[in-house]
Amino acid sequence: MFAAPIGDQLLAFIDEQRAMLASCLDGLSEEQARRRLVPSKTTLLGLVKHATFVEKVWFDEAITARTRAEIGIPAAPDESFDVTDGDTIASVLADYERAVSASRAAGASLGPDDVVTGNRRGPLPLRWVYLHVLRELAQHCGHADILREQIIT
User: Fold this and answer.
1) Euclidean distance between CA atoms 124 and 34, whole angstroms
2) What pLDDT was estimated at residue 9?
3) Which residues contact residue 113 at a Cβ distance below 8 angstroms, ignoring those fewer than 6 apart?
4) Structure pTM?
């Protein structure tokens, strides 16, 4: 795995962002979690669904080279924000936690300079993958903060 302490810190930052994004749903009603406040498909529930997609793209597709169809995720990122009638806060959070757990396991035996070959961008070092995921999670945590503020106040 990563050399300590930098690797441990990077993984801790990623886990912190994962937890922050999941917590955006804390105390909300199902209606609040689904509420659309912007023209895009972005909702709080949709953000967590998208984060599940992100985990599977970067820690399943990129590492295993399985296709998105094989993994069971949408072909395009925009579709990952879609919230279905069957989606609930509990079911989306459970899916997210499973994806995060699988992501941790997928990267556990790899080092930061190991190259993953399954992403559409081509071969990438795992370090790049972790930094990209951290950046994406932080961005979506910002989106979630703004949406949650609009819903709660």
Assistant:
1) 35
2) 87
3) 125, 126, 127
4) 0.94
Six-digit token string for 19: 């937890």
Beta strands, E only, 90-143: 115-116, 124-125
Structure tokens at 44: 């709080």
pLDDT in tens, 20-74: 999 999 999 999 999 999 999 999 999 999 999 999 999 999 999 999 999 999 9
21 burial (CB, 10 Å; 0-12 / 13-18 / 19+) is: buried
**φ, ψ for residue 124, nearest 5 deg:** -140, 145
Q: What is the pLDDT of residue 106?
A: 93
Q: How far apart are the two ends of the chain, measured CA to CA in Å?
A: 43
| pLDDT at residue 87 tops 70 | yes
Q: Which listed CATH number (2.60.120.260, 3.30.70.2190, 1.20.120.450, 1.20.1250.20) goes with 6-152?
A: 1.20.120.450
